[in-house]
Amino acid sequence: MRGHGFLIANYVRGDSVIHRAPLWLKFLVVAACGAASFLIVDWAVSLLIFGIVCGMLLLSGAGLGRLAGTIRMVAPIVLVIGLFQWWQLGGPTAARIVLNILVCVVAASVLTATTPVQDLLDGVVSLAKPFRRFGADPERFALTIAVMLRSIPFIAGAFSDVRDSARARGLERNPRALVLPVFITTVAYARQTGDALAARGLGEPEDTLER
Known about the structure:
Helices cover 76% and strands 0% of the residues. With 211 residues, the protein is mainly α. Helix 3 packs parallel to helix 5.
C-alpha cells in the first residue's frame, strides 16, 4: 500500500512557540475549537478563528503544502455538507458549519504537527489516569489511539488505490467495485492488527488472558 495524505499533519520538527507550548495547552486549544463549533453562530467569527488556526499551523513550520493537503483531504466531505446545509438553511449557516469543521481539522493538525506521537500518547495516558478509579485503563486507551492513527491512513490509502484501479477499468462509478475491495482490505488489516496485538499479549483484558 503506497503512502497517502492523512487528515491531520504529521509531526514537523521545529522550535516554534507552538512547539514549546505545553501539551495540556495544545489539548485545551483543540477542545476549545471543538466546543466553539457548537457555540459560534456567526460565519464571520468562524472565518476569523479559521484564519487564526491556519496561521498557527503555518507558524509551526508545516508549510502551505501541508495546510492545503489537510483541507484537500476533507474537501469532498465538507462540500457535500455545505451544499446540503445551504439548501436546507441558507448560505450563512452553511458557511459557518463548513468553517467550524475546518477549524477542528486544522486545530487537530496543529497539535499533531507540533507534538511527537509518543509525547501525544503519553499525554493521553496522563489525562486518562483520573478515570482509572472508574475502571478505565489509560494505557489501553493510548494503544487504541495509536492503532487508530496508524489505521486511518492505511484505509484512506486502500480507498485511493481501489479507486485508481476501478478508474483504470472504467468502473469508477460502480459503488460495488469501490466499496467491496476496500471492505475486504480493511477487514484483513483489522485481523492482522488484532493478531499482532494478541501475539504481544496486548488488546485483551487481563481476566480474559488468565482463562
